[in-house]
Each structure stands twice: as structure tokens, then as C-alpha cells.
Amino acid sequence: MASHLSRRKFLGAASTAATTAIGAVRVAEKPALLGGKPVRSEPFPAWPKFNSVEEKALLEVLRSGKWFRGYGQQVNRFEQAYARLTGARHCLATANGTSALFICLNALGVAPGDEVIVPPYTFVATINVVLLMHAIPVFVDTDPETFQIDARKIEAAITPRTTAIIPVHIGGSAADLDTVLAVARKHKLPVIEDACQAHLGEWRGRKLGTLGDTGCFSFQASKNLNSGEGGAILTDSDELIERCYAFHNNGRGRRATSYDFSYHSSGHNLRMTEFQASLLMAQMTRLEEQARTRDQNGAYLTSLLREIPGIRPARVYEGCTRNAYHLYMFRYLKEHFAGLPRAKFLKALRAEGIPASDGYRPLNREPFLKQTLSSRAFRAVMPPERLSQWQERNQCPENDRLCEEAVWFTQNMLLGTRRDMEQIAEAIRKIQSYAAELAKA
């Protein structure tokens, strides 16, 4: 037995030494930008995933001749299925995620001159829908550790003009909903969850998009649930869902027939087509399996990247019981890479076969915002002195810093193997070892 154990220890030590040696050799290899061999030559998994299930679904709609939701049943079936999946009482399918947000603002009665609290680290659609209502976006700074809105700063941004809060679950991880919802209840404000990137994400075991007054989703081509374009609204309110339905259907109620030209309200045409719904039903057959793969690879990648000085994976709030991983996000601290600028780091990473992005710019600083708020339409509800106050209020220094450090990987990269994750970490270690030379190149 002693001999056997000694032999096993020896083999284990030898294996560890060999692994360390291999790792050292790999790190010693030059980066591709300096003439070395790239870590990867194979592409990451393609997106979207589809097969005969999608083909059959689309052909069935095509051959039925019922392409509009008023004639077919595919949109109704998707709404029922998505409500069951998320645990929501009601689901309304929409043309896209932007229209879902726009519909909700209308249904909640947001009016010109009202203020809506938003994060600065988000896709522009979150802000555009507020501007479409001739309301005023009020930016609350980002928590750079999580990339989410800093919910602790929301209350200080509330004024008598505030009419709604839009937390955005960036990357599929949850904003701090305990704090957001507590502040909203205290001030009697509705919460619209922008869950456009957060399919199957959870907060304390409940699906994201079901904790606020409404939750909005996108099914745009890059999203984890994809129909090219498309969106959905979730709510438990019977009254809200009817207002949403009427607005998205040109002001016509749910029971209106093709020949009924009476109207409940003003509205818009923001309906989903039968084709989109059938595609979503097909895509949903593999949604959970894909989500589990992202979960596993995301957690494994985090365990690897945490070991690299200067790489800070986005922290997940304790209440986030499931990260949807639409994006894998981390902060790049160049002082740990011999001052190598992020742009060069990204270029070196791509040369290793690892596609990466630097993410969002500071949205609150975009020139179009001041131009829009200074326009003739907005001057009627926002006089010059209020515009000056708005500019002063909307400084977000933490977000400015995050936008200089952020790095993203897209969700399809997490659909690969553990070896794929190891190669990402390997490429970053290689770049770090040669950072000084890369900075001079």
C-alpha cells in the first residue's frame, strides 16, 4: 500500500510539473501580433443555431397563408408559452424590444416633461423610447464592479417629476432589484425591467422581467432567444396588459375584429408576425440547454480569469440566482499590462483568435442628447434653465471609468467547450507576458 501511494504521489507530482512546464512554454510563446502562432485557429460556435425544426415551423406558417397575428395562432401560442416559461401572468409579443419598452411607457402614462430614471451603461434604445415620449432621461451612475445601475444612487435622483424607473439587466446579469424595488415602492413609482439581454436570468429564483410592473425582452438577431427581430412584454396586471395590447394594435382592443374600426386609445402598429412567433417556438426547444452551457462555461471562465492580475470579471449580485450570460463582461486594468492601451489589448486578443469588444460608450455624454433636448419639441417642456440643470445632474464618473476599461465576449462564445474557455485565458496570459513589447509595437 505504501509503495502504491508513493508511486501515485510521484506520478501526481510529475503530472503537475509537466502541466506547469507546458503552461510556461505556452506563456513564453510570442503573441500573434509579434509573429507568434495564434492560440486559436477555429472559430467560436456560430449564431444562430437552427435545423429542420425551424424550417418546418416557418413552412407551416408560409403554407397556411395566415401570416398576421389577427388571422393565425402562432403569436398567441408563443405568448402563452413564454408566460409559462417565465412564470408571468401575461405576455404580449411585440415587433422588437425597443417597441416593448415604448409600449410600456405609454401604458404607464409617461408624459412630456416627465423624468424617467435610466442607467448610462445600456443600448441606446433604453433612452430613445424615453425621448420618443418627450420625457427626460435622468442617468444614475453605474456600479463598475457589476456593470449595472448603482441602485444605491437612485433615490437621490428622484424628483417630483419622476414617473418611472428602468433598471437594465446588462449582459444578462441582474441589477440590484431588492434596492430598486424598495425605492420604487417608497416613492410609488412603476418599474419597467429592461430584460432585453436577460432571457432565463433570475433574481432570488424568479425570472427577470417578472418582478417589476412590466418586463421587456428583445429577440433581435444577437439575443439568446432569437427571431431576427421581435420582443415581448411581461406583466401580472390585467389592466396594464390590455393597455399595452391596445397601444401596440393601433389603439384597437384585443377583441376587435378586422372590420371593427372603433378605438380604445391612440396607438401604433408594433405587432409581432406569425413567422417570428413560429421561429421563437422552435428556438425555445433548445433555450434551456444553451443556457446551462453558458452557465457552466461562464463560471469556469470566471475561475480562470480571476487568477490573472488586472482582469476583473463582472461581479454578480448575491440576489442574482442565474446569469443569462448574453455577454461575458470584465474590466481590463492596463496598469497590470505594462500600460498597454485597451485598444491594443483588444487587437492582440483578436489576433489570437479571440473576438472581443470594448462595449458601450458613455451614453449620457452622447451629443445627440443635448441636441434632442434643445430641439423645438423639447423646449416646450424643458426651458433652458432646466436643460442646464439636467446637464449638471447627469454626470456619471464611475460609468466614464468603466467605459474605458470594459471588455466583452458575446454569448455564442460561451456555447463552446471548456477548452475554448482555457484558450481565452491562455491568450490573455500570453498578452500579459509580452505587454511591454506589444505597447511599443
Could you say what the CATH topology of the domain at 52-285 is called? Aspartate Aminotransferase, domain 2
Alpha carbon gap, first and last residue: 57 Å
What Rg is obtained from the alpha carbons, in whole angstroms?
24 Å
The strand line-up of the biggest sheet is 1-11-10-7
Major beta sheet, specifics?
4 strands, mixed
The count of helical stretches stands at 17
The count of DSSP E runs of length 2 or more, i.e. the number of strands, is 14
Descriptive overview:
The chain is of the alpha/beta class and 441 residues long. It has a domain at 52-285: Aspartate Aminotransferase, domain 2 (3-Layer(aba) Sandwich). Helices cover 43% and strands 12% of the residues. The strands form five sheets. It has a four-stranded mixed β-sheet with strand order 1-11-10-7. The radius of gyration is 24 Å and the shape is globular. The chain starts with a helix and ends with a helix. Mean pLDDT is 93; it is low at 1-27.
